[in-house]
Amino acid sequence: MKDWIFSTDHKRIGILYLVGSIAAFAVAGIMALLIRLEQSGLGPTITSDATNYNVWLYFHGAAMILAFLIPGLTGFLANYLIPIMIGAHDVAFPRINSFSVWLFWFAIVLALLTFVIPDPPDVMWTGYPPYSVQTAGNTSFYVFTVHLMGFSSILGAVNFLCTVIYMRAPGLGWNQLNIFVWTVLGAFVLQLIFIPVLAAAVTLVLFDKYFGTAFFAPAQGGDVLLYQNLFWFYSHPAVYVILLPAIGTILEILSTMSRNPIFNYKTCVYGGVWGTVVLGSDVWAHHLYVSGLVDWLRIGMMMTTIIISIPVGLLVLTMVGTLYKGSIQYNTPMLYAASELFLILAGGLTGIPLSMTSMTLHLSETYFVMAHFHYIMGIMATFAVFAGVYFWFPLMTGRMYNETLGKLGFLLNFIGVNVTFAPLMWIGVEGMPRRYFDYAMFPQFEGAMKIATVGALIIALGMAITIITWIHGAIAGEKAPHNPWGSKSLEWTHTVYPPGAGNFPTPPTVSADWSPYNYGKHTAHTI
Amino acid sequence: MKKWVFTAAMMAAAPLTAMASSAAPAAEGAIHDHTEGWNNLWGHLVLDLGAIGVVFGLISIYMLVSFVRKSENEEGSLPGLSLGGSLAWTLVPVFVFLADDMYLAANGFKLWINQRTVPVNAREVKLTAMMYNWEFDYGNGVVAEADANGRPQLFVPQGQPVVLRMHSEDVVHSFFLPDYRVKEDVMPGRITYEWFLPKQIGENVLTCTEYCGVGHSNMFGKVKVIPAAKFEEMILAKSGAATPAPAAPAEGAAPAAPAAEGAAAPAAPAAGK
C-alpha cells in the first residue's frame, strides 16, 4: 500500500490514473443509465424530481470529460507509455508527477461528494451563469473540482513536455518518435495554454456567487457572454486534448496489428496533429452560434471550423492508409481500433452540418449535437482507452486477458452504442432538445427513446464484461509471452513485462535507421 | 498513382460544378423563407456527406477485409512513399476537402444572410423570457394570453414574417421553433432577435433549448398561426381595450425599449409601418 501511495514511478502513477478514471467512468456510466431510464417513457419515470435528473446530467458530463477521458488518455496512457516509448527511465519530475495524480484523486473524491451534500451542483458541465450563480445548487464543488483537475493537468503538461524534449534515448530523433508521443505532445500544449482560461472563468463564477461580484451580472455591468467565450476558449481545445491521444492510441494499434508502418508519417504529425492544435484553438465560437454573439465572429469561426476538417481528414487518411497491404490480426484491441474508423466517420461527418452557422440555428442544443459528440468524443475516445488497455495489457500486467470475453465485451459495446445513439441522432434532427427531464411536447419521440434505453442496457452489460475481463486477466490470466503482438516499439522490445523500476534492464540507444514502425522492408528513412 | 490523382481531381471538381448549378437566384422581391432554405440545404448536406461516408466506409471495409493475416510470420508490405508521393497524398486530399468545405461554406453563408436579415414588413413582437415562461408583447399594451392550461401562446398572422425582439429577466434561455428551423439565445442584458415566416394555419411547438433549471423542459407552448385578418382584428380589439386605461408610461416604454437598447442588437430594419 505504502509502495503505491508514495510511489514516484511513472508506471504506478499511470495505473493510479487508470483506477481513478475508471472509477469516475463507472459512476458516470451509472448516471448515463439513469438518464436513459428516466427518458424511457413520457412523464416522470424513475424520479419525480427534475433536480435529480439535472444532477445526473451534470455529473455524467463533468466526470466523463474531466475525470475519465482527459485523465484516461493524458494521465494513464501518457504516464505509463511515454517514458518507455522514448527510452527514458522515468519522467523529468517524478515527485511532481506523484503530486499531480493525487491532486486528481482529490478532485475525484470532491466530485463524488456531489451525491452526499445537501444541494448538489445542477449546473451542467458548462456551468453557464447567471444560472450557475443563481441556483441553490452548490456550484463551488464544481469550481473546486475544475481547479484541482486543472492544476493536476498543468503539472502533467509541463512534466511531459520536458520529458519528451530532454529525456529521449541517445540517438532518438523527432521523426522516429511513436505517433502516440506526438499526439500527446499536441494535447499537452493545448492543456498548458488553455486550462488557465477555464480556471479563470469558473473562478469568476465563484466570486459572483459567493462574494457578490458581478462579472456575469448584466444588471451591475457584467456580461453573460463573457463566460461563454472564456469557457469554450478552453473547452473546445479540450475536445482535441481527447481526440489527439485517442487517435494516437488507435494508430499504434492499427500499425502493430497490421504490421505496417504509419502511412505518411510526417504529414500525419506536422499536418494532422499540429494542424489540429493550431486550428483547434481558433474555433471556439462554433459553440456560440445561437448565443447572440456578434454575427461576424460567427462567420469567421464557421470558416475555421469547416477548415479543421482538413487536418482531421489527414489523420483519418493515415488511419486508413496504414492498413493498406497490411497483415491484419483481429484480436480485441484491433476490433476496437477497427471500429474507430466507423465511429470517426459517423461522428466526424455529423460535425460538418454543425460547423455551419445556418444549420445550427436548428440543430444546436438538440439530440443531434448530443449524438454527434458522443460518437466523436465520448464513444470514440472511450473505445480508444479500452483498446489501449487491451493492447498494453500484457505489458502492464505480464499476463494475457481472455480473448473470448474481450471480444464479447467489444461486440456488446459496439452494438449498444449504435442502438443508443442512432435513434437519438434521428430525433435530434426532428427537433428534440437536449437536457430535458420530460418531453411532453414531443410525444412522437417516445419510441426512439425506448430503443435508446435498450441500447444503454446493452452497453451496461458490455462494460461490465469488459471490466470483469480486465480484473480476471490481471489476477488469473496466462503469463504473457515476450512481445505478443510482434511490435518494434521500445516498450515491447527492450523491457520485461511488467517493466521494473527504471524501465529497462539496460538503457536503450537507437540508430538512425531505427523506427518503432520498422515492419516489412522499411527503415526510418523510407517512411 | 496517376489514376488516383485523376480520381481525386474529379472529386474536387464535382462540388464546384454543383455550386454553379445551384446558384439560380430567387424571384425578385419575394420573401426568402429560411425554413425552406434550411430543409433544402439539409437535403444537400445529407447527399454530400452520405457520398463521402459511403466512399470512406467502403474503402475502410475493403482495407479491413482484404488484408487479413494469412500466416503467423507474415509482415505488412505497405509501399514506402517518395517525397512526391508523400506530398501528393497530402496536397490532393487537402484540396479535395477544401473544395467541398468552400462549397458548403458558400451555401451555408447564403442561407445565413437570409436567416439574419429581417424582411421590412415583419411584424415585431417583444419576447420576455423568465424561469419558466415566455411573454409576448405586440406593443400598445397588447400581450398574448396563456391558454387554458397556462401554456404560453404566440399568435402570428399567416403569410407575414414575424420578428421577435428578445430579452430575459433572469438566466440564459433559448427560444426554439423546431418546425421553423430557428432558435436564438435569450439573455439578460442584451436584446437578441430571430424571425420566421408562418405559412400554414395551425399550431407549432415553441420551447426552451438552453438549460435554465428545474423547469427547463416545462417552458413549452404553442405558436398559433391564424389568418392575417383575424389576427389584425384580435390586436385591434385588445389595443382598444387597452387604450382607455391610463397606460401612458407603459405605452411609451414598449416601443422605446427596442430602440434604446437597439445598439446591442445587430442592425435590422424596423417594422415597416
How would you describe this structure to a colleague?
- The complex is a heterodimer of chains A (527) and B (273).
- Chain A is mainly α.
- Chain A contains 18 helices and no strands.
- The mean pLDDT of chain A is 94.
- Chain B is an alpha+beta fold.
- Helices cover 42% and strands 21% of the residues of chain B.
- Chain B has helices spanning 2-21, 34-66, 83-116, 228-242, 248-261, and strands at 123-130, 133-139, 142-143, 153-157, 162-168, 173-177, 182-186, 192-196, 202-208, 221-226.
- In chain B, the strands form two sheets. In chain B, strands 3-2-1-5-8 form a five-stranded mixed beta sheet.
- In chain B, strand 1 (123-130) and strand 2 form a beta hairpin.
- In chain B, helix 1 (2-21) packs parallel to helix 3 (83-116).
- The longest helix of chain B is centred in the middle third of the chain and has 34 residues, at 83-116.
- The interface between A and B is large, with 91 and 76 residues.
